[in-house]
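Box 3.1 — From sequence to structure: Digalactosyldiacylglycerol synthase 2, chloroplastic
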Amino acid sequence: MSTAAAADDPIGRNQHVAIFTTASLPWMTGTAVNPLFRAAYLAKDGGREVTLAVPWLSLKDQVLVYPKNVTFGLPSDQEAYVRLWLEERTGMASGFNIKFYPGKFSQEKRSILPVGDITETIPDEEADIAVLEEPEHLTWYHHGRRWKTKFRRVIGVVHTNYLEYVRREKNGYLQAFLLKYINSWVIDIYCHKVIRLSAATQDLPRSIVCNVHGVNPRFIEIGKVKHGQQQRGEMALTKGAYYIGKMIWSKGYKELLQLLDEHQNKLSGLQLDLYGSGEDSDQVKKSAEKLKLPVNVYPGRDHADPLFHDYKVFINPSTTDVVCTTTAEALAMGKIVICANHPSNDFFKQFPNCHMYNNSDEFVKLTLQAISEEPAPLTDESRHELSWEAATERFVKVAELNEVISEKALPTPPKPFMFVSSTELMRSLEDASATLHNTVSGIEAARRAFGAIPETLQPDEEQTKELGLARSVSKT
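Predicted structure (token representation):
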């Protein structure tokens, strides 16, 4: 469906939806997994043509990013890996397209950044709806076709609380102040609407707060099995408490170990197992060994591993997540969750097994209570709220996919001489702002000054060959 034809299709059926994200499996990060599920469930009913656009890394970057020495010689090999992973977890064929855009890994940011004009990944005749997963990340250094010019509707989905991470760095509050305004600037330029997964993220132009993520269906099935065991009077949850997350201090390990250290005497009956891998693993293990409490530290594993099925209590003190995936997974498995009363956890307040603390004394009280009691049975309604079916329903609603009308299709009434409406003025200011960003992002020295990877205005020869790209001059 062409862009012009799309303007005559306000119902939203047979739309082309292009989902751009900043990571891909086998990197097990939220921006690799959640957009993949979003693509699968949006395409499930066959009413939309869905394309998932993910970064392609050259071999030297794959080695740095992908776990267990998994690498790919061709994009088609990685696509096969992604589809198999998804089908094993959903039990359904993946009815969407996968396209790769060139990316490079920034070791400093621990992130994949786009290379060149990635809007070119989608042909003009299919440029209908664009979903930017992490819109700030995808637009910081964007140089080329303006997203709002290429696509008739651009929806941003904010995954990451970048300001919180930056605040923890040297000169963090100054960096966060600058980043806040840069994020607002680029998102205002490039997105018609923004979905913030929780209020833990910064307020942004034209944004709405709604959790549009679900859990892998495997976790719901695990929860059903455990519920069946409980109904039969079997001992379903025989282990105590655990936490799983990337093992870096900012993922809640610092807060957790501080809480345990302050209240070791009161928590003397607690045994806690920590699972994770990351840059701070050695330091976390050393800190845990200093405690009098039995705190065991293990390498990271898949949360769906049978090892975790029998744990009863999931403790997650992290406040840097926007919506914590592992918390949702633990609830889906029927566990009791102990977490901080924080905007990132607001979605979980509706579940009776989620207990939130406001201070360290409440943390102790709720943890001891959870160890001694059994979780409440999960209802069908609660399971649905956690599912990707419900998340997709919420996404379609708040993104207004069934109500989209192209601005170009609206009639323009005659105006008095020299009359300029506020809408036109705002649009002119936005156009000027977009032109400024496009100009600055095209200057190599300016890009480097703001943290871009050197020489990423165009794909290099290796990626051009691997992706079968033709070198072209960026359109503005």
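Summary of the box: Confidence is low (pLDDT under 50) at residues 1-13, 405-412.
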